[in-house]
Amino acid sequence: MGKFNKSGGREMPELNTSSLPDLVFAFLFFIMMVTTMREVTLKVVFRAPQGTELQKLEKKSLVTFLYVGEPTQEFRAKMGSETRIQLNDQLAEINEIQDYIAQEKSSMKEEDQPFMTVSIKADRATKMGVISDVKQALREAYALKISYSAQARVN
Amino acid sequence: MSKKRKAPGINATSSADIAFMLLLFFLMTSSMDTDKGLPRRLPPPVPKDQKKLDLDIKKRNIMVVLINTNNQILCNNEYIEISQLKERTMEFIDNPYNDEHKPEKILTDIPFFGEMMVTKNHVISLQNDRGTEYQAYINVQNELAAAYNELRNDVSRKKFGKAFSDLDEEQQKAVQLIYPQKISEAEPKNYGENK
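^ inputs. structure came back:
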């Protein structure tokens, strides 16, 4: 029969942690790949509309964002509470869209340019007049692929 | 000469902590949310000097969907609720009973399927007011997309036993030929915006 001898048992070997940083780094790189940095500070408030038939935007690098909504509290005093458009980091007028799109387009690789997509992130209470103006401007700028950004509806 | 001294190993226990700090920093500053939306294609701009073409579309091929300032929906001169829109649209696109007020069916040769009767000349004309709320507009777009998706899924299931999104590219193209998405958006009119 075996003997159970507690005293003088083997000492627990210390766990080797030298590869732990490598593990964490691998995880870090994974996170960096799948996420995008928030590049712009939002100057308009928007709550995306809801829908059910949504599709994911494929390539992040081909997407240009266009925000539509009311200015945030700190800009209210300067801009009023009318619906405004935000391009990159500043609030803009409708007639600036065309130049902005052209600029964004020229910064892309030539073979990617036809696949450029503009994602319209607009507040759900926006009046369609503004959206229509934006759409007209995009048509003029030949940015014909658009996407109405929305959230998935929870039933 | 004295004997070579052995270099002491660098203590690396804290590098894990440093890596964690980096990780946390990236977790905080980046956003995981994938952007989702309803993809659409805008028509190319009309040259300014071009005269308005009067496209001759038969009346039976058009379904007019109007959204007014109060977000009410008018579908072919009839008030309907948003919940009815999908069914109406599906009936219109598919025209299962060959109704003479619904789009005409044209014999078309489609890969994988052979010759089929397809309502390829149908047009859904979507018009909205400048005062329409964006959410109402998205709701309608969403319902229209849902109608197309359901029809496409049905035919994919019947033929290939898979949902439309699981088909390969050629098969998707074939299904799209059967149910081409034709939503035309008119320039918005100002019927009565209260400002």
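Residues 66 and 127 of chain B are 5 Å apart (CA to CA). Chain B has four helices and nine strands.
thumbs up if we can close this ticket
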